[in-house]
Amino acid sequence: MAIEQRQGLVSKQSLSEDEIAAIRALALRCEQAEQLHMRIDWTMLQHRTGDRPNDFLYYSNDRLIGYLAVDDRGGAENEITGMVDPEQRRRGVFSLLLDAAFEECRKRDVLYMILICEHSSPSGQAFLRARDATYSEAEHEMLLTESKAYTGGDDRVLVRPARHDEVDKLVQVQVESFEQEEERLRQRILKHMQEPDLNTYYIGVFGEPGVGCEEVVGCCRADMLEGIVGIYAFGVRPEYQGRGYGRQILETVIQDLQKKGYSRIMLDVNVENARALHLYRSSGFTIRTTYDYYIIAA
What is the model's pTM? Predict the structure, then answer.
């Protein structure tokens, strides 16, 4: 009995090992064609909850030629990244994938999609211009390439993994640092804290531990990605900025991660955030690539 070949568009709630391997092979072909660093969260793909379609695959004669991933954040926006085999472009494949993702996300009351495209990808940039996507912002992806000596800091500030009863403190820092909606941030933080093997929040506080009067200074999140750790959601409350606490938190987190055996550490920074860029460069990070973010209404 002949095995039916996969053909056309397939949506998936979870991915098999074979499907992830095919996505990896497709990503490699795309990277080699344009010298890119495809932004795909492989850990996310391996831990899909399986409750709704977030992966869209396109096959031609049983060969994967197109792929799109939705990072479902549970709010009004979803992030999207995707790719098409260099030899199969200009045939409408990515438009089909994108339309299928849009149709699914509308069911979730998502208002708009954020498409991530590497700045140095001519094909991706051309597609977004053709879709009348609106440019939003750009971020540098920076990789820790040099170990710097710990510069010390304020002995009154303790940097440590956050406890589950400190969600309000994490929300406070995030709201004040990034001006995002409080309840949405809370749900995102709670979601991350439910996966301690994949995500760790670090918090910087004034005061002695356990005395009940710790004042929060800043925080960040370390995501255990495939072969690398990403530092995200790094913020310092406005009244504590410019006083070295950001550097103290960053250096302490890097030290802790390295002690745990993580040698590859990366982070993202807005290209217009000169203060953060200076901090990261002086802490041993260098720019690996730049990603542009575009918005399309769902």
Answer: 0.89
